[in-house]
Lysine--tRNA ligase
Amino acid sequence: MATEQPVGAAQTELTEAEASEQQQVRREKRDRMLAEGHAPYPLDVPITTTIAEVVADNQGLEADTQTGKIVGLAGRVVHLRNTGKLCFAAIQAGDGSRIQVMVSLAGVGEQSLAKWKEFVDLGDQIFVHGEVITSRRGELSAMVDEWRMASKALRPLPNLHSELSEETRVRQRYLDLIARPAAREMVLTRAKTNASMRATFAAHGFVEVETPMLQTLHGGAAARPFITHSNAFDTELYLRIAPELYLKRALVGGLERVFEINRNFRNEGADSTHSPEFAMLESYMAYGDYNTIADLTQELVQNAAKAVSKDGSAVVTWHDGTEFDLGGEWPRISMYESLSEAAGITITPETSVADLKALADREGVEVHLPNHGKLIEELWEHFVKDSLVGPTFVMDFPVETSPLTAAHRTKPGCVEKWDLYVRGFELATGYSELIDPVDQRERFVEQAREGARGDVEAMRVDEEFLTALEHGMPPAGGMGMGVDRLLMALTGLGIRETVLFPLVK
């Protein structure tokens, strides 16, 4: 019969054959437990407290102390050392807190000790009952008088004394959560960030709403959608690329300040800042504009930074120890002016496509289906984007690339749109919203022409949205921000590390 890997502090990496052998050994232990009437997967165990509470309540005890406190604890076995009459284990709770447990012949009896040695492996979830003590070395422990299996692990844990590979971390996030405190901390950081944003919105009178994920017509952004089919309605549907057009319907209906935190789906590439499925925040403020929504966005990000920072300031500490300051007033720069300065020539909304194309060719910048707006944005990214270090609002975009945005009040050829750049990537975008239904229809028609010319990201004419807009939408400022990217700005990590269960090939 195959044998289980020896237990102890020095756990080595397993080959595929060794791992398969261990699985067989553990299955046999499960079968023997069932045959002998020991439940490997009970429905409950009599827990009285948590490991974290025991650790917090028993700080500073001297070595070899008996507290007289009797507890029932459960956790995963992450260290195991079996000797003759006294066995040691460390069990870990989901929050990462640990405690030593001591299983002795005197405490549990000969039969129970033998079953411990026979059945318990690294990775098992176990329940222990006993007295809180400190060992002769001063380690906080539970001296066990009863133990039970809470869940028998049929697969061995990875080596907890060495770094998991990135492949393992993203494909088997549950192992990452067991092994790395930083993985658990990211989950808490995301939760604190979302709670902070909701609190900020509430303080400004916003209402959280939910809009459809499945849509008959995709819109609200320039992106390629995922397509599916509804059997019930026998029609083609799209996973939404943005909630924008439905949130604007809410403004038409009189919900004047709304936001949504939910998933978007875009059938595009994946890299360190992009994921086909991602969490998105969108918000709309009636009687605001792109300046007021920029003020709100700065407050949202800075409050989130304070919620997750070590000292409650807007200075966050990234995973590599770098401190990044999100505080203060963030600069607002013009897209055209910053591009002109970086390129060394004057570029305006009147600059011809031919001149922009010539500049792009000289710089080796490739633009698919080039028009004025796409050339401006690609050239700006080439010349300017990488120079932005701290948070920066890039203001006043070309009209061709912003079909849902109001025309600029003083700059012909521009729209009142900004992109917020943090850490060199786009974190959020904000608009003074286009509320003229006639103008909006013309923009949609132009987008349809771009689609006919081969632009797969172009929007279609959305008659239902236009009908809603014709009922009168108030002037508004709108904003969209990637929640995963916000976590990147707060932690310095890539997008796959900020998502609990990222999509991988």
Observations:
- The domain at 179-331+390-498 is CATH 3.30.930.10 (BirA Bifunctional Protein; domain 2).
